[in-house]
Write a structure and sequence with these properties.
Radius of gyration: 20 Å
Strand order of the largest sheet: 1-2-3-6-7-8-9-10
Helix content: 25-40%
Distance between the termini: 57 Å
Number of strands: 10
CATH architecture: Alpha-Beta Barrel
Strand content: 5-15%
Oligomer: single chain
Order of helices and strands: HEHHEHEEEHEHEHEHEHEHHH
Structural class: alpha/beta
Length: 290
């Protein structure tokens, strides 16, 4: 029984102030989600900037050891205070990421063939929801292949994960895959991002393209832009600035961070654009001088 001795009687009810928790939720398209789902999204997206910096290091699930990711155990600690979200596989997270780090977790839950196979589009859901819950994942990352041979099965993977995510209040990030034969046009990205959002994905990871502001406008949930291939640092920061300026709510950089000569500084420079409103020129100056 609680000790009631000396307990003060409640008296300050602030009768002159309306109930404070009455504002729409700050993440795009998430007003109707329950508290647990919104709590995960609030860990992914910064409540002040409404944006996020993700660090993708899930390449090993189909590429094996990748240049720059040979020693995750050494790289991850260097970046843990420079990014908001770690995006990786459960194996990499459990073996190389300290549970003491407070970063949000985007858990890669689909997997498929290796780069030794010409067709990577046939993936399966490889992580069950119980393990995602055990890992305290803030979102389930599901690769989708619109326009590829594996389109139907990857959309089935997405739908299954959305159903499980709704059941257990874990958001789903639909990742738009672009194969060698797929067009990288605004027409394609409008189709792909809208499809994934309509199927229930709470976040869409996709690529920057011409008319990107139209892609963003047509998508009812936040878009996070993938870094894609390694670019010179100045070009990568221009990409980041254009994406944020045209409505993206974050960057998910992999190779443009871990293959940079200064990964930590590059991650921080991206964060200045994403969260602080820096231009690409100002962010590049930061990169060059730190």
């Amino acid at each position: 029984m609680a000790d009631t001795e000396g307990l003060k009687v409640a008296k300050n009810y602030h009768l002159d102030q309306a109930f404070a928790n009455n504002k729409p939720f700050f993440v795009k398209g998430a007003n109707a989600l329950d508290w647990g789902m919104q709590k995960h999204l609030a860990r992914i997206f910064n409540p002040k900037s409404k944006n996020t910096v993700m660090f993708a290091f899930d390449h090993g699930y189909f590429m094996g050891s990748t240049s720059g990711l040979e020693r995750l155990d050494l790289l991850i600690p260097e970046l843990q205070d420079a990014v908001d979200v770690f995006m990786g596989t459960r194996g990499a997270l459990r073996s190389c990421v300290s549970p003491a780090f407070t970063n949000s977790i985007a858990l890669r839950v689909t997997s498929g063939s290796s780069i030794l196979n010409d067709d990577l589009s046939h993936e399966v859901v490889a992580v069950d929801i119980e393990d995602a819950i055990r890992m305290n994942a803030d979102c389930l990352a599901v690769q989708t292949f619109i326009g590829a041979d594996g389109q139907l099965s990857s959309l089935d993977n997405l739908s299954k994960c959305v159903n499980l995510g709704q059941r257990y209040s874990i958001p789903v990030m639909g990742v738009v895959a672009v194969g060698k034969q797929m067009e990288r046009t605004s027409r394609f990205f409008k189709l792909a991002t809208r499809m994934l959002a309509e199927l229930g994905a709470n976040i869409i990871k996709t690529y920057y393209c011409d008319n990107f502001d139209e892609v963003v406008a047509a998508c009812p949930v936040p878009i996070v832009v993938a870094g894609g291939k390694k670019l010179p640092e100045k070009e990568a920061l221009i990409l980041a600035y254009k994406a944020i300026s045209e409505g993206a709510h974050g960057l998910d950089m992999g190779r443009n961070i871990f293959q940079s000569e200064k990964p930590r500084t590059m991650a921080k420079a991206i964060g200045l654009i994403v969260h602080e409103g820096y231009t690409d020129e100002a962010a590049y100056e930061y990169y060059m001088t730190h």
